[in-house]
Fold:
Amino acid sequence: MQKGNISVQTENIFPIIKKFLYSDHEIFLRELVANAVDASSKLLTLANRGEVPGKVDNPRIQIIANPEAKTLTIKDQGIGMTEEEVMKYLNQVAFSSAKEFLEQYQDEASIIGHFGLGFYSAFMVAKKVEVRTLSYKEGAKAVQWSCEGDPEYTLEDIEKTDRGTEVILYLNDEDDEFAQDARIQGLLDKYCKFLPIEIQFGSREEQIELPKENEEDEPTYETKTVPNIINNPRPAWKKQPNELSEEDYKAFYNELYPTSEPPLFWVHLNIDYPFDLTGILYFPKLGNQMEVQRNKIQLYANQVYVTDEVKEIVPEFLTLLHGVIDSPDIPLNVSRSYLQSDRNVKKITDYITKKVADKLHEIFRKERQTFEEKWENMNIFIKYGYISEDKFAKKASKFMLLQNTEGKLATLEEYKEQIKEQQTDKNGQLIYLYANQVEAQDAYIQTAKQAGYDVLQFDSVIDTHFIQKLEQELENTRFVRVDSDSIDKLIQKDEEQESVLNEERSEEVEEIFRTAVSNSQVNIQLEALSPDSFPLMITRPEFMRRMQEMSMLQGGNNNMPEFFNLVVNSNHPLISSILESKDADKAKQLYQLAQLQQGMLKGADLTNFVQQALSWMDK
Structure:
């Protein structure tokens, strides 16, 4: 037996490891299993070259939890290590100095360097670590390395006949949860689900169909105990697209998200120059939801799970997608600010954005009906990309759809052609009318249709921003909500109605309604409209409404006062009747009808109105 000191440039390296990795100390298992995978992969490479004596079957990694002994063992059948290799790889911690280490990682909130600490991450949870190993090399002796979380170690010869390495963790009392099957199963599912070497965690019972003596015999089964393999060593994203069917893609989505609805579409990423990237991104059914769908893209490096926080690697709108990105070229041991400025990451971001846009355009061109059928479930994603990513917006303008209140869909260019004759105002501006609450605004929509206008439906959480983006992108274009003004004012033409009331009588009408309404936040506005139009109409100024909506979307308080216009049609016979009778009660009744039309009567006000209406009917 020999004793010695581990070669580090500080005597306090172990307290530093434990302190600065403590917030994410479960990561140790990923590190140790990843090392076992490397050892196994190296063995297969050497075996293919004929450099490994004897037969090499598919190596397997075993994870063994022992709650009684408070130990966790990671055992592989890889290349193992000689005594010299143990001295080289386990006794030298590759940090230039503790000071540089702390300076480099002090801003990281959870995982430090991802794979940088490797084997020594075991000491985050273990008071003692033993490594039992036998190299594949002929004549090698088995050795055991042991360390109790300080610079001292022991190295001795042992009896071991099977090639490979066992790492045995004697867990701290406060970390004995890592000897529990359920805890380890959860970590293996999270970090090791798609590693390229089979990983066994215990065993399970399986029904095996027995051979039939005759074809007509009923099948018989036998229960057998089989190894519990917890991973899929060759996931779909590591295969070529031509190897996969539609059902294969859907089955893999179900493997990633077992309780989710089937995806709408998917995009298979596969490039090896100028960077290495594979993956599959799925388009989920979003409907009008955004926040609950985020953080469903999993980032891997050579099939090792890293994180589902990928917003520094993909544009923010792509975080609404689901799936997997795998790239060894993404630097994982640096700060987020470095990631954002890294040239390789920028190329990867641009590539993913282009692939997603190209896939959507291809589906639109080849399967427009299918694309339109799924528009409701993916329009938020496409609009979000159109708003936030200029490169995506340029491509998306070809397949961006607008939907009117009748459910008909058209591209931006198609819709412009449809409405330009009827909805161009006297100043040459093209006016797009829209509703955000189709049922509540139905009266306004029907009035617009009677005038020969079309009304779009914008009722998603992102449409306020989307409308602003369209106004910036489309020349001589303005979007106006259908209930923001009277129909004659929504799209102003050259012809104007003459009022039947002179200035003096108009002032009398205004005074009657001001008394009936008695609300300082309602602006009385007389307009000469068609006698066939509504006698009264409540509208909200477009500018004020947009200011309020933007404030709410940006997390501000809804403290802006509610201002409304009460548009009085001075040419309507009912208005003339009220003027002649000076009947403020009838004026109030008309105002309440207008409120009812806008959905503004609620609670006690609505009850009172209904009771009054019933009494009018009795009379």
User: Anything to note?
Assistant: The CA atoms of residues 129 and 292 lie 41 Å apart. The chain has four domains: 2-203, 236-366, 400-490, 503-618. The chain has a mean pLDDT of 82.
